[in-house]
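Example (one chain per record):
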Amino acid sequence: MSAAERGVARERSVAVRAAFAIVFDEARGGFAELRGAVVLARGERIEAVAGGAEGEALAAAADEVIDLGESLLMPGLIDLEGLVDIDHLLLDSWWSPAHEARLEWSAAYARDPREVLTPGERSALRRYGLVQLILHGITSAMPIATEIHGAWAETHDDLLDTARTASELGIRVFLGPSYRSGAHVTRADGSHGIHWDEALGEAGFADAVRFLDTAEALGDPLITGVLAPCRVETVSDAILARTAEASAERDALVRVHATQGLDSEIGILAAERDATPLGLIERAGLLNERLLLAHGVYLDVHPNVHGEDRGDLARLAAAGATVVHCPLTNARYAFWLERLSQYLDAGVNVALGTDSFPPDLVRAIDAGVQLSKAQHGDLGRGLLAEYVEAATLGGARALRRPDLGRIAPGAAADLVAFSLSDLRTGAVDDPVRTLVLAGTARDARFSMVAGRVVMRDGRIPGVDEEALRAEGQRVFEKLRAAYPERDALAAPAGSREAELFPPVFPRA
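Predicted structure:
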């Protein structure tokens, strides 16, 4: 959207009407349900919120009225682990340990890796991912992509292309190229380790810092630069410390992937760097209010670590750090957060991420709620409200953006609406409970970011969905075909895709 177009948008008022809305009640300091709701946006901000006759008066005075009918209007969802890959989960979430080893790089491949995709294909992949985020009701995202198909990690130019695509589509993004000093590998004898290349780590970090300048120079309020080191065990102590220094100097957020693996992370760090993941982060100077800890699963309270509180949650809370919880991905990969309520009771800010395909926060919320009930053995625990707040207010706190994650006067006009009118949704009682129990994020029909409508009637203006779907399938086939060349445990003739990716049932 050009500056001139944004200027026009600032002059116009748009009233969004819906049967139900989740609005922020300043008097209560939290969310409340409003029926027969009208939200008036003027330019990039929400000007007024009302229901009933007062809401209709707002609509009558607006330049445009968007009537969403029997829909649930919510603050735009915030996904701080928004995947922009196609193959992640589809190919790697059902493996036995023997298969899992074959999906990593071989030690030989790590010495001479290559880019599987062309620059144009990488651009198409990122566009595909951003479109998916919008279609699933995400208005603010911190994208993540796998490094397995790249020559090493993301580059400055990769993220500049992502920024331009995001700006075109209208989604709010917090971006930075991933960087690492090492890569997990499987050796020919089946053992695991990390292949280190400090020069590539230095180059990647330099690219990441340069992107902070680039993002600022773009002058686009929808684009914010962040620092995004890869899995903590693959980043050297020196680069982690310099990341902390750059974050402090530039007041930049840092998302670190940590506390998500036992042997592959905790075991390696204990043996090779004499540290726990959280201890390493603290030692590097990263444990502060700018830290987003992706996953935050294997802390001392987890039964597979110590099974008791030895202070990890208190350290996170005191530092003002955020845990980015990915409940659906955790379930699919068979590891779980040890009771969300325990984190919240300790004062830890929790945001949500999808970290898999599809980027469906509604299904993630549902999975998290059901897991919490099972962990507590109590239907009254694992409150749905906690997860909805994590997907909105928790994300806003993590981003240090109090204008996001809420529908209230003065807040950013970032909205999403989910249809409740489908017969398959069933009877509507509480609208949030109805959506989570009977719907998915595919029920998103409308979204607005900074006052701009980016999705209407489930469609994104200017996006050829059929062409994008066909291109996505083609790219996926190319990504899948590249796995055998990296397989350290392949037979002498090389492993075939059918061997690596057998069907659920034998093909007739």
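Caption: DSSP finds 19 helices and 21 strands in the chain.
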